[in-house]
Amino acid sequence: MNVFFFGLGFSARASARAIRKLVDPQAHIAGTSRTADGVKALKEQGFCAHLFTGEEPGMLADDLSQATHIVFSIAPGEAGDTALIHHQADLDAAGNLQWLCYFSTVGVYGNHDGDWIDESAPCEASNERSRRRILAEAAWRDYAARRGLPLAILRLAGIYGTGRSTFDKLREGTARRVVKRGQVFNRIHVDDIGRLTALAAAARLDGTFNLADDEPAPPQDLVSYAARISGMTPPPETAFEEAPMSAMQRSFYGDNKRVSNAAIKRALGVELLYPTYREGLEAVLREETA
User: What percent of the chain is predicted at pLDDT more than 90?
Assistant: First the structure.
């Protein structure tokens, strides 16, 4: 496999590692970072890295032309998806391309008042970030259809893992237990994202799938559980109406839904490594204290 990642960030790196572990130990992995420091760090981790700010084309043609699998993990801007804007000609020149994957978000569904939904639910995004994702999904479907390629659109729930979890916020003193009646969120451990993406790449999976855990839960429950198992003191509960928040933070609470992951598990014949936040947080704590 020759895999190119537009945006070798947290989830993409987990996917790259999983591809080498589960699918092809000799896979060539290349990708992009927005900064020179990021490029350097990726090279130190054994990846072939290129600078791509999204504002102008990067020097990506050589690796892109050899790619068999491409994963897009960059949020679209006001003008649309940056890979299509700046590198569509390079994508067109990739003669060995076999599979495309786009990391989207469950935010595209908008608010469903706590109801269970699956991939058949209408996309009624409640904020501009998610509306851009809907447009980007459509653009990649059009591109994949034109090329005659399978495309997996993976809609990710809230991402966490070692180095990016409630434990970090508790240690920093920034964790909050904001309580909004009836509010729940799904999450997904980054290692589950990596594993499912690797298996999807191997199967050249085609279609739209939710990547979320089995148990959507109130956000304050995660903070309480993380504090309990780590021996840290949880912050006091704060009513949503009284909690100081940025406009972006408050917008997340505008979406309330329970997202089903049945389709991806059925398509790949697997269960999650970390089906709820409890197993996921326990795994993070084990890794941090090992």
Answer: 94
